[in-house]
């Protein structure tokens, strides 16, 4: 989903997002339903995932999204999935993100809920929900878009997902480990093994992350680190790039720039210049960082 949505998810007091708690029978599967009220500008948006797969719903049934995946164009329908490690993926469509609804799933149970392999996101990171939704999707899709209130739409989602629940066991400690990672912010695999409340075996951690989350612990921590650094860069205009990089566990700013290129396709200065230029077309410059501020000026290299 658009990377800037994560700053609202992380802030429960943010007026730009409303979180709805799932029903009791879905609490092991769904982390939450999020409705975004922010008036984001239409146009190019960097897509990202923090390790929690999401299903996103367009506002109307006939909407589609134009997705650029490493320069290749792909269209997805009114309901689509986003997960795994996203690199240089952008939404190119003019989508009104106001009242945009997203279901955020726990990765441990997502794959079993939809009967897919834990390597599914290695093949595709953004795709139509119909590809994995299974039996009853057309009826579900019709019922969802025939409902006009958010509350009614969530009831339709709850009914559809509840029918898919089957007996599935996984190490419950994984939920606590993810919560611990989220609280700590900056961790390496070594840090996690040494500082978690109980001693963790690396082979156990590697095996269970790949089996239940579809991603290695190293890659999970990597995308969390980049996301935290990106949000710092977007939000704190007075910090310089080196300080942001170090605060988020990078050796130096060059390593952060390398990751930024990896996930967005361009260095941070170019990325935010492009966003600023686009924002002037929709008068929403106030949500963007200052491109010419001290965070982007450094004589040693071109960011």
Folded structure, characterized:
The protein has a six-stranded antiparallel beta sheet with strand order 1-2-9-4-7-10. Strands 3-8-5-6 form a four-stranded antiparallel beta sheet, with no helix packed on it. It contains 13 helices and ten strands. By secondary structure, the protein is an alpha+beta fold. The longest helix has 19 residues, at 217-235. Helices cover 40% and strands 14% of the residues. The chain is globular, with a radius of gyration of 19 Å. Residues 284-302 have low confidence and may be disordered. It starts with 5 loop residues before the first helix and ends in a 24-residue tail after the last helix. The protein folds into three domains: 3-162; 173-219; 236-296, Arc Repressor Mutant, subunit A. Keywords: DNA-binding, Transcription, Transcription regulation. Residues 205-274 form the HTH araC/xylS-type domain. GO terms for molecular function: DNA-binding transcription factor activity; sequence-specific DNA binding. This is AraC-type DNA-binding protein.
Helix content: 40-55%
Q: List the helices and strands in order.
A: HEEEEEEEEEHHEHHHHHHHHHH
**Secondary structure category:** alpha+beta
In whole angstroms, the N-to-C terminal distance is 25 Å
